Structure formats: C-alpha cells, structure tokens
Amino acid sequence: MVEPYYSCEWLESGLTFAPDGLYACCVLHHGDRGWPKICDFKGGPLPVEKIKEAREKIVQMNQSQQFENCRLCTFLKKKSWGKSDYLVDVINLSHSTHCNLKCSYCYLQLSKTGKHWWDTAEILRSGETPYQLVPTFRAMIADGLLAPEAVINWGGGEPLLLKEFDALFGLTVDYGNYSTVATNGTIFSETLAQGLRIGRADIVCSVDAGRAEAYLKIKERDYLERVWSNLAAYAEYGLVTAKYIFIPQNSSKKELLAFFNRANAAGVKNIVCDVDAFSSEYGKNLVSLISLARNEAEKLGLNLSVGGCGVASFPENELGRKSKGGFLSSFQIKRKLAFLKESFKLRLSGELELQGGKTNPEWQSGIKDETAFWEAWIKGKGLEWSDDFLFRAASGTELQSYITELLPEKDIGSDVQILDVGSGPLTRIGKCWDGRQITICPIDIEAVFFDQILQEYDIVPPVKTVAGEVEHLSELFAVDFFDLVFAENLLHCSCKPLTALRQMIRVLRPGGRILLTQPLNEGRKRNYRGLYQWNIFSQDGDMMIADENSVVNISSLFCNHVKIACQTENEWINVILQKKPVLI
How many Cα neighbours within 13 Å face the side chain of 178? Predict the structure, then answer.
C-alpha cells in the first residue's frame, strides 16, 4: 500500500488549459492562490515529461507546505493516492476568454494587476482567439494519455462561442468522456443538447437573478428571458444546474425567491448557491439568505447544494456549515438533496464518481477472490447451487417469465437483443422464447479466465461470455441497441458504479429496460473489503448508491433519462430502469 502523502486529484492526473499555457489545476482560493503553472503552451502535442516533472515537484513541495499556491487549499489531502493508468483523468478548459456577457464578479472584469494570467490584460486578450485543441485531444487519445472516462470541465469565457466546440465536444463524447459545461445560457446548442440526452454531459449556468433588473446590473446585458428559455429547453434533455452567486446586486430575499420560482417554472431541478470566489467578506445577511434558499428548495422539491468555487476558496469561513443552522437535521434526511451535494463536490475534485475505482487496492484484491470462487464453482458444477449450474449450462432452457415481462411486445419470429452484464462464466438467462429469435450477449471482465477454466473441465457454454468492462459498454456495442440489460449481483462490485449505469443506459434502446438485482448494503455488511465497496439500497422509493463517506441519489441523477422503480425483499433490491424515448 502506498504511504499517505499530501496531494489532490488534480495534482495526480489533472490538467488545465489556460490562454498562456498549461496549469496543474483550476482551483482558486484565498483570493490569489491556486492555479500552479506547468509550462507555456499554445496547442499541439502535450509536453508529457514537463507535466510529470511539474506535478512531482509540486507534490514534493506540498509535503513541507513550501508551495504557496496549494497551501490551505481545501482540496489538498493527505492519504494513499492510487496511481492512474492515464496521464490525464480530469481537464479544465479555460483557454478561451471570449464571452458575450460582462458579469461583475468574473475575473474578466476585475482590475488588472498582472500578478496572475487572469488579471493580465495581454493574456486575456490572447484568449479572444484561443489556440486549437482538437489536434491536441486527438493526439492525447491516440497516444493513450487521456482516460476514456475522463471528466472535462468547460469554462473560461462562454464555451459555446468556441469555433471548435462542436468538433471538440463530439470527439470527447465519442471517446467516452463526460463533460460539465459552464455556460451562461444565452446560446442553445443542439450538439450540447444531444450530449445531455445520452448522459455524456451536464450544464451549470450561473444565472444569479430572477428578475431582469438585477440581471442587467450584474451582466450588463438584457438576456434573462432568453437564458431561462434555453435552460428550460436543455432541461428537457438532461441534467441542468442553475447557479446563484451572492453579490451585492442580488443579495435580497425578493431576488432570491424570484430566482427559485423561475428555476422551478423552467424545470431546472438542481440549484447551487455560492459566493464570490475573490471575496472573503460574508455577512450575517448572507448566512440568512442561504438558509432561506435551503428552505425554498425544500418547499419546491429542488435539489440544492451550497458551495463550489467561492465557498471552497475560503474554507475557514465555514459558510456552508454556518448557514445550515436549525435546518440541518431535516436537510440531511431529505433524499432529493443527496445527489447534487455529492456530485458537485466530486465534479470539482475531478472524479464524478464516489471513491475507489481500479486504483483502489481493496477492489483489486477482490478480483483474486472472485476468480477463485468461479473456479471452484465450475469445478464443483455449481457447488451447493447445482440447479443453477445445470440451468446455465443447458442450451434449450426457456427465458424466465420475470424477464419476458420486461421485454417489449415482439411478434413470433422477431429478434430480441439481451445484454447480460457481469454474467460470470455461464449466463443464467434462458435461451428460448416461443418462436422468437433471442440473441444473448454475456459480458464479464474475467471472460478470458472463464474460457480457460471451462475448457479445462470440458464444459462448452451454450453462449460464450465476451471479455469487456461494464464501464466501457459503448465501445463494444452500438448505442440504443439492446431490448434488455440484465445485471445481477454486479453493481455493488463494479469499480465505477455511476459510469457503469451510464453505459448500460447508453446501449439500451429507448423504451427498453435494465433489470438490476443486488444484495442490500453489501459494502457495509462486508466491511468494504475486496470488490464490495458499495451499498445499493432504496430510500423513500429512490435508488441510492453509497460508500463509507458519500451517497448518490440515482433516481435524481438519471431522472431525465430513465424511469426507476425499486422493490426490496429478503435483503435484496430489484431495480427496473426504463429508458425514456428519444427527444426530437
């Protein structure tokens, strides 16, 4: 096990593109700290060795708190950091400074001191015509530097004004990356909307106002109606978060309530309240307003998170904690707040997962236990589950009724496509259904091992298991293809459960269903050992996934893509997710 040391997700495998070069992160704190520079850069191939050397130097200096940029940063943690297989797992794009608004709190509008790139007029002007990144990303992908599940945070000016937005966004989506696009909402992009629809992106829009008068004072443009209209359209496609940054021009009860009413009317269910990242002046009125925001979100059934850039910039002020007050107990138990609170925190850290993953030593150790079990199961022909073994090994078994009930109506002779994820050596799905042509595709990360053991014991599977990872299904199968995705005893063992769910939804056809059958709270029962890193459970009818420290409301997270129904029985949970129709 790696000895604990001070670092963060960005220093381990993050990269930020700014107008004048590459930076280790995009985290601003204490007014002028953060943003450690790596080197100058104006496009082209990445200087891999410079990036590695700079990261290593920064990490070394942080062990003795000698690096001022990172000192007292809320993201700097001492723990055992697992090494990524890729140079880059999280990206921030701030290389463009072109914007059609003039938000009063934005770094583009601040007085220029020349101390940092964001307050240097010459550098900001260079960002008006940003360098191209499509060739850079193509090279990163070709050279195996960019993780397929990397998270890309689009910022800087207005990302949708980038000439190469469609090309770059499409390239990363096709590769498997997930994007969080910080847009001002003045532009509607069909390309971005489709990214939302397939679950490859979400939007964060800092509206900051509910009424035109306040919006005009903050932004210097009368675009409020256009923004709410665009956000309402985006919300029909996927996850949209409206942000409210408290500044003097909008710090009133009347303005805040107007904002919540507009968000609710637009169908925007996720709200973030934050403060100016460059200011540490927080009065009692602000604490009162954030407490009001919590209550208003509760009343309207909206998901609310306090924090982001501003609150994280001055963690010692404990603004989030102070604003909870007497509302804390009810705030904690409300299911609707769980998703956004965690997902926003994780998005900033660059994971967009809970914790763990393939770099988690515990998860890796569990693979050995899993292969040992299946070898014993094959050798013992099912052990105490002999009936299950015989059913799996037979070729003429009937498709189970609980599966046929979930399949769409199919005429005799029609084709049925079923994906069995984490199938083990022999799929447990029946092979025949009343004259219909059934195609079953079992997939498992250990398929190669299964082939060897089955051959050793002269067992010929009726359907061969395909090698593959649930987190990369769309690299193996077409999008919108399967009628049913079957996943039994899988999700609590996956290395990235949120990514796994996104991928299952991606390859499922609109109207199709996913059947998840999982033991309840298996991670807790097994003390988070081996593969068992996650708890799957239901709360107030919603599907939840949690580890030791975090919880994600899956029903909220995927509400724009699937309908979810949960049923628990005898320490098991059955979840049916039906993919919503494609929006035209």
Answer: 27
Q: Encode burial over 166-199: b for 16+ CB neighbours within 10 A, e otherwise.
A: eebbebbbebbbbbbbbbbbbbebeebbbbbbbb
End-to-end CA distance of the chain: 51
Predicted local confidence at residue 363, as pLDDT = 63
What is the residue whose two structure tokens read 């998703």? Answer: 339
**The tokens 């306040």 sit on which residue?**
214
Cβ atoms of 270 and 234 within 8 Å: the answer is no
Residue 195 identity: G
Is residue 81 helix, strand or coil? coil
Sheet holding 551-553, edge to edge: 535-539, 542-546, 551-553
pLDDT digits (tens, 9 = 90+) for 448-473: 888 888 999 999 999 999 988 898 88
DSSP letter for 580, please.
Answer: P
Q: Apex CA 27: angle with CA 21 and CA 33, to 5°?
A: 85
β-strand partners of 75: none
Assess contact for 174 and 153: CB atoms under 8 A: no
> Three-class SS of residue 361?
helix
Contacts of 239 (CB under 8 A, 6+ apart): 196, 202, 203, 270, 557, 560
User: How many residues would you count in the chain?
Assistant: 584
Specify which residues 415 forms β-bridges with: 437
Q: What is the DSSP letter of 320?
A: H
**pTM of the predicted model, to two decimals?**
0.59
Q: What are phi and psi of 229, to 5 degrees?
A: -65, -45
The predicted structure's pLDDT at residue 255 = 96
What's the rounded Cα separation, in Å, for the pair 378 and 450?
Answer: 9
Of the candidates 353, 322, 439, the one whose C-alpha atom is nearest the C-alpha of residue 149 is 353
Distance CA(327)–CA(282), nearest Å, equals 20
pLDDT band at 10 (very low <50, low <70, confident <90, very high): very high
Angle at 337 between CA 333 and CA 340, to 5 degrees: 145
Sequential DSSP letters for 390-422: HHHH-SSPBPPHHHHTTSPP--TT-EEEEEEET
Nearest to 93 by CA among 132, 47, 126: 132
